[in-house]
Amino acid sequence: MKIEIWSDIACPYCYVGHLNLNAALDRLTFGKQVKMIHRAYQLNPKAELNNPLTAYENLAKRRNISIQEAKSNYDELTNELLQMSGLKYRYDILKPTNTILAHRVTKWARLFHKEHEVFERLYRAYFLEGESLGDAKTLARLLGELGFDPQEVSCFLSTHQFEELVYAEHEEAKIDRQIRGVPYYLINGKREIYGSESVDKFIAILEEEWQEENQPNVFVNERHSECCESEGCKLAK
Questions:
Q1: Residue 235: pLDDT band by 50, 70, 90 thresholds?
Q2: Which residues pair with 37 in a beta bridge?
Q3: Residues linked to residue 35 through DSSP beta bridges, in sequence order
Q4: What does the alpha-carbon distance between residue 205 and residue 209 come to, in Å, rounded to a whole number?
Q5: How many angstroms separate the first and last alpha carbons of the chain?
Q6: Which end is more exposed in the chain, N or C (fewer Cβ atoms within 10 Å of the end residue's Cβ)?
Q7: What confidence tens digit (pLDDT) does each residue in 26-48 have?
Q8: Containing H/E element for 22?
């Protein structure tokens, strides 16, 4: 079984989906046989790498609202995410940035079969620890925690390797697949899941696909309310 995952590290629902998919695979007897391939998607490709604004200031500027309104929006989102994941997202210390370096370094980590592990570390660093993922030194340090040589990471990030791949995957998502929000999952090239799902829902879908893996391809669309689009993140109703 193959699961392709389009996501952005700046997407809070992508982190929820990442954790829930991991938990689902851990509970499935065939979980270790599932191949996961991460595809790049950027919610804001034009974002600054070294953005001096806080998350509240950044949202206020983008939507032309007050700082207090932006904080209220994030407080509502934080409560929603806490209910979904049990994690308290730290928008009070979050550092908005362009995620191009983070996407590039996950592509590089794929060469060492550690792409999924790196995604999880970067999600946690961004949403829970207030780390700047637009800073090459920070990324080198974070990957060093996973066994990579920080100097090698820094050398890689000083190049433009995988930059075009990130842009190409983003364009494929928007143009070829008409993806307007993430997370987006494609199972065995035929079943879509649009938005984060619960652990139990992931298990049910994956079990069904595992049983039908040798059946003729049927394209199925699963849409869920919690996802992030270029204009912002949608809350569950």
A1: low
A2: 4
A3: 2
A4: 6
A5: 32
A6: C
A7: 999 999 999 999 999 999 999 99
A8: helix 12-27
**Residue 83 sits in a domain of what CATH number?**
3.40.30.10
Q: Is the pLDDT of residue 232 over 80?
A: no
Q: What is the pLDDT of residue 143?
A: 98
Q: Is the pTM of this model over 0.85?
A: yes
DSSP 80-123: HHHHHHS----TTT------HHHHHHHHHHHTTT-HHHHHHHHH
- Strands 191-194, 232-233: pairing is unpaired
Determine how β-strand 228-229 pairs with β-strand 184-187.
unpaired
Residue 24 CA to residue 22 CA, distance in Å, equals 5
Packing angle, helices 136-144 and 100-110, rounded to 10: 30
Tokens 């007897």, residue located? 29
Q: Which residue is associated with the tokens 């893996």?
A: 213
Tell me, what amino acid is at 150? P
Tokens of 163: 């930059």
Query: pLDDT tens-digit profile of 54-81?
Result: 999 999 999 999 999 999 999 999 999 9
Six-digit token string for 102:
């983070």
Calculate the average pLDDT of the chain: 93
- Total count of domains within the chain: 1
Cα 7 off chain centre by:
4
Residue type, 188: N
**What is the structure's pLDDT at 219?**
62
Return d(Cα 210, Cα 204) in angstroms, integer.
10
Mean pLDDT for 163-187 is 94
Amino acid symbol at 133: L
- The residue segments making up the domain with residue 27 are 2-233
Q: What is the DSSP letter of 221?
A: E
